[in-house]
Every structure is written in structure tokens, then in C-alpha cells.
Amino acid sequence: MSETVIHAENLTKRFGDFVAANALTLEVYKGEIFGFLGANGAGKTTAMRMFCGLSIPTSGKATIAGYDVYRQTDLIKKNIGYMSQKFSLYEDLTVLENIRFFGGIYELSNAQLKSKSDELITQLGLQHEAKKLVSGLPLGWKQKLSFSVALLHQPKIVFLDEPTGGVDPVTRRQFWDLIYDAADKGVTIFVTTHYMDEAEYCNRISIMVDGKIEALDSPGNLKKHFQVDSMHEVFYQLARGAKRGE
């Protein structure tokens, strides 16, 4: 993991007098599973929007997949995938129609679309559901399909925003198998989650508190540094320290 695919240096976003993301500095590497943690309101969404080329920073600098967040947002969008817990698929389209729709947005050729569609449906075991509406799929299958669709155009980075919220533990673990498989193929996974056990699955994690990155390291090193046994305790100590102004 030597090739840097996300580089941020003092990246800041202000809304008037409010600093939503404060001088974020980090590097994320090719094929890395990078966890981006923080409580609601910590600034995770603001940061992710800047990384995805959807929001222009107030100051600082960053490159995503080699492209500048100020001047090359269109190229950033072509080289990343994105999946949200809240919206990723069209419920009133079939499985196959969703795959072809997003493949078209990613500018895949007709031949690529057919090949990718067949491959994806077979890989997920959705042959019997291919012509059924996505609204009829269980939530876990929707999330697996959403993630696979986000990989259709072979992006360098996939941003996952709370991808397993509301999914049962067994399906969550299966979803993480898909993440491991993508990372093994060189795709960088940038994931936000509020499940502390999922933080343990990441190569490294950062923890945001009140708009700042207060910790960044591997789960093992962070637990060792804070002398605790779980990431939940690390998170608790950082949040408690922030309230005390430490």
C-alpha cells in the first residue's frame, strides 16, 4: 500500500463562522480499507462531499485519484464509486434495469454493459431476481447490489457512507467479504460506519471529533495507545476528552 490515492493537507470547509471540517490532513493508499469514524455532526459527511468532488473546500488542498478537488471535480467523479445507505438504487426499476442505468451513467459501452450485467447477476446469485423490482429485494441484497453497481466502472476508490446500517449481523459480515475482495483487487475502500466492530475490519481508521481528525492509525495501534480492548472504548475516550477540552 505505497501508492497514495487520497491526499489531503489542511483541508477546511467553513459555512459562515462555522467550521464543519477543520484542517484535515491524511493519506489513503491503493487497496486500503480506510475507516472514517465520528459521531453525528462530527464533519464526516462534509469531508466526504469534498473528497467526492461535490463540495469545494474553503481552504487547504487535496487530490483524489490524482485529481485536484478544486479544478478537476469531473475527473474525480469518473474515477470513484459511491454508495449510501439512504439512496443507491431505484426501487421502481428491476435489478437488471438498475445495473444498465448506472452502467450508462458510467459511460460503459453496450458490450461492456451486457458483459458486466451478466457477470454481476451471476456473481450475486440473482439470476431469478434479475427482472424483478429492486423494491422486492431484502435490504441486505439491496446493499450488496448497490456496492457491486458502484464497482461497475472499475473505480480507483469507492466511498461507502454507512453501508450496513439496519442490516443483520450475518449479512453485514457477508457484505464485508465483498469489501475485502474489492480491496484485494486494488480498489481503495473509504467507509464511514457507526458500528465499532466494523472499525476493527479496517486497515486504518481516522476518528473525527467536532470537525477535526483526533486520531488516525490502525485499530490495533489505537487500542494500544489508549490502553483499551475495543474501538468503542477508544471512541469514548476521544469524545470524553473533547467535551473536557483536552
From TrEMBL:
One of its GO terms (molecular function) is ATP hydrolysis activity. PROSITE patterns: ABC_TRANSPORTER_2 (PS50893). Keywords: ATP-binding, Nucleotide-binding. Residues 6-235 form the ABC transporter domain. The keyword Nucleotide-binding applies. Pfam families: ABC_tran. The keyword 4Fe-4S does not apply. PANTHER family: ABC TRANSPORTER G FAMILY MEMBER 20 ISOFORM X1, ATP-BINDING CASSETTE, SUB-FAMILY H, MEMBER 1. This is ABC-2 type transport system ATP-binding protein. It comes from Ohtaekwangia koreensis. The lineage of its organism: Bacteria, Pseudomonadati, Bacteroidota, Cytophagia, Cytophagales.
